Amino acid sequence: MYTDVRNVQILISLLKQFNIKYFVNSPGTRNTPLVHSIEEDPFFKCYSIVDERSAAYFALGLSEALDEPVCVTCTAATATCNYMPAIKEAYERNIQLVALTSDRESYPMFHMQDQSINQINMYAGYINYSVDIPAILNQEDEWFANRSINEALLEIKHKRKGPIQINYHIPSWGSFCVKNIPTERKITRYDDNNTNWEEVKGKLKNKKILVFLGMNYNKEKENLKISIKKFHEKYNSAIVIDNYANINDNNFINASIFGDILTQKEVQELAPEIIITYGKVFYSPLKNRLNGKKQNFEHWHIDENGVVIDGFRNLTRIFECIPEKFFDKVINDVNIKNNYQYDQMLKNRISKIEVGKIPFSNFSVIRDFCRIIPKNSILHSSVLNSIRITNYFKIDNSVKCYANVGADGIDGAFSTFLGQANKTNEMAFLLIGDLSYLYDLNACLNVNNNLNYKNIRILIINNYAGAEFHKNFGLSMIPTLNLHIAAGHNTKMEETVGLENVIYLSAKNQQELNKAFKKFVEKSDKPIILEVFTNADCDAKTLKSFWNCNRKEKFYRKAVKKIMPRKYIVKLRKILKRG
Amino acid sequence: MLKTILNLYLNKNIKDVICTKDILESIIDKDKEYIKTNFNFEILNDLRSATFFANGEVNSNNKPVILIINGEYLANIYTGITEAWFQRSNINIISIFEKYDDIKIEYLRRCIPDILTIYEENIEEYKETIYKFINNNMPSLINIKYMLKSEEKVDYTNITNILDNIVKNKVDVFTYNSENKSKNNINIMNIERKYKYGVLSKYMGYVSAKKQKTLIILPYELLKIDLNIFNNRYINKNVKIIINKKKEQSNIKEWIKDNDIEILQTRNLDKNIFEKFWNLDKASALIIEEEI
């Protein structure tokens, strides 16, 4: 019988799937749920050595002889320190040791709790990978444990063979009442040595496939585009992008808006059976709505370095190769044609999106701005609304788009943009809000004093506050919003720049904006800054109204949202347990 | 530099030094003499034991102690120093490295709050920091660069020649600190000096997987830092150990025998005794006792 401790069950299931069967156990209480479970399972081959230092060295010799990973397991506290000498040697000599260190509850550590030391990443400097697995209390813990153990086991011999640590918490040792443990999700990394492309093609056939392309600032993308288009012609697929994929085609869909407007029912209907991703970072808010566990799809990720990205909670395959290779391999010798059913489903939904009549706001300004960006320009969008709204509207396919979407911070958009502008002869546009601009004001000095940036155009939307917080909370919820949270101010950005080397334009209504935009995109000997004034509260309401108009919600839900104050909606959601 | 640092401790009337045998044998004679003359020193074999021993001295004496170690084996202090950190034991570790590049101590930061690496010959500027360490009532670590005497390589040709003649299939042979090369029937796997801890444990793990006779030849000194591995359930007839032992060294024959290993002993290795040892149908150890 197996333990009923969930994190140990996940660990055992994954060890079996990764074909790791050798264990050198040292006696202890904390590791008993693991040790008793594996000693009862004929798959595992167990050894017993009392002193953990000797046990780890014994395992090292065993692993060396077998050229296979060998696990060592022990109880909590100093027992785990004894693994250090062998871990160091294993790291230096590329030997596959798996240190399974059991741990106690974290919170009482150092506060009168016996046998408790900080075991997290305790072999730092001499370990291929180290993870800390919590006791499992909910689905999020379960996903985290599964993902982390997968990540660790994948690193035993990725790039280099070496030791890993899986530290797992056992607040109570449960009982041994489980006859069979469930098979947990395994992530497999494929490379030239273990990819059966025929099998991959077989898996893709007759499936609804979403190719989801994220941030890609590489210059050479023509071959990738050709490969993806060919893939699209053959498989029942849809290709979704965000602006930062920088791989544009009229057949590809920027589905970022879906993240903000789809109902749960629609997400279920539009979900694919397989998602294939490529990209360093994924901005599109669609990612937040798709969940492989809930909607029952597999996620495959392509990455040159074999990085694990499990944003959809059901990553099963990583293809460690360039994306061109993946797509070329799966289209080779395949005589099928896309029936475009799935592609059309997504496109139909996109085509139903309407902007309608909207007031002068950051939303309307960005919509108009997207239309006028000249071909071959570059565009850097700073953060939040600048990124969000530019992804709702069509920008010419030749425009190269950037944003600091990695950590998605407010901090250095202006400076980053200047670096990008400095390396292009094309027109370079920065779309930035007032707070983001003020944040990185030092970058101004470069514009005025040092560099000749006549190709740059900066569109500042000044709503005298952080509009995001007006969207999230609103003045009705927090009347003092502008005091600290949205950092309200009265600064005109005109005051912040020494204007002798810059052309400054401004607009506070549609008419002035139309006029300013004409000049803004003309050739000029100087950089041009265009400051557009909007109202933060109006900006937030416009955005929400756009979302609400395009949500296919039932009438009563819309009605409730319209008439009920937000704080009561939050309470109602809590009562209905819908977060 | 070692002497200059030790002088700082002496200035503060700290005179208890603990070191492992290997480090005392590797430091230059002048420094060795200085330690012997000026300090109360204790010598232990195993660094893990030495760290716990240092902790015991601090507990008992309520005074800081100095633990001088070879940085190559630093990982072995981890267990003892973790306990010492809980107890706020004032163990002042001086860790000797031959190259600055070898100093990788990230993992120790959680149990040694005060860590210093000395890069200059003139240690005047480090003086205050070292005094602060002494007063901190916490384990501390000072890393220094120091050229240790190199250990002489051991030649096992006489053993490997005999083995090569009597076996028909390839045999794995672990040697320690040797330059012997593989032969027709012998696959030599030399263990470097820096991996001397756990040599027997690794060997036992290896043999338990290999399912064929495997020889290890090692100096007696290494048994003393890996003794408990004889107490394991996986000793089988494929275990073949040759131990080089000096006559005056203490005897652990009984301990080995108790763990179901047949002992043979000789002063002059010849083919007959080797064949007897090798062909025994149980785990066996051959002790070669050298005259001084």
Topology overview:
The complex is a heterodimer of chains A (579) and B (292).
Chain A: H1 6-17, E1 22-25, H2 32-39, E2 45-48, H3 52-66, E3 70-74, H4 78-81, H5 84-92, E4 97-103, E5 129-133, H6 139-154, E6 164-169, E7 188-190, H7 197-204, E8 209-213, H8 222-234, E9 237-241, E10 253-254, H9 258-261, H10 264-270, E11 274-278, H11 292-295, E12 298-302, E13 315-319, H12 323-331, H13 341-351, H14 362-372, E14 378-381, H15 385-390, E15 400-402, H16 413-422, E16 428-433, H17 434-439, H18 443-450, E17 456-462, H19 467-472, E18 503-507, H20 510-520, E19 528-533, H21 536-550, H22 555-563, H23 566-575
Parallel strand pairs in A: 1-2, 1-3, 3-4, 4-6, 5-6, 7-13, 8-9, 8-11, 9-10, 11-12, 12-13, 14-15, 14-16, 16-17, 17-19, 18-19
Helix pairs in contact in A: 1-6, 3-5, 8-12
Chain B: H1 2-11, E1 16-20, H2 21-26, H3 29-38, E2 40-44, H4 47-61, E3 65-70, H5 78-86, E4 91-97, E5 114-117, H6 127-135, E6 140-145, H7 157-166, E7 171-176, E8 186-191, H8 199-210, E9 214-219, H9 220-223, E10 239-246, H10 253-258, E11 262-266, H11 271-279, E12 284-290
Parallel strand pairs in B: 1-2, 1-3, 3-4, 4-6, 5-6, 7-8, 7-9, 9-10, 10-12, 11-12
Notes on the protein architecture:
- The complex is a heterodimer of chains A (579) and B (292).
- Chain A is α/β, with parallel strands linked by helices and 579 residues long.
- Chain A has 4 domains: 6-185, Rossmann fold (3-Layer(aba) Sandwich); 190-351, 3-Layer(aba) Sandwich (Rossmann fold), CATH 3.40.50.1220; 362-541, Rossmann fold (3-Layer(aba) Sandwich), CATH 3.40.50; 546-575, no CATH class.
- In chain A, the strands form 3 sheets. A 7-stranded parallel sheet of chain A has the order 7-13-12-11-8-9-10. Chain A has a 6-stranded parallel sheet with strand order 2-1-3-4-6-5, sandwiched between helices.
- The longest helix of chain A has 16 residues, at 139-154.
- Chain A is globular.
- The two termini of chain A are 38 Å apart.
- The relative contact order of chain A is 0.07.
- The mean pLDDT of chain A is 92.
- Chain B is α/β, with parallel strands linked by helices and 292 residues long.
- Chain B is built from 11 helices and 12 strands.
- In chain B, helix 4 runs parallel beside helix 5.
- The interface between A and B is large, with 39 and 36 residues.
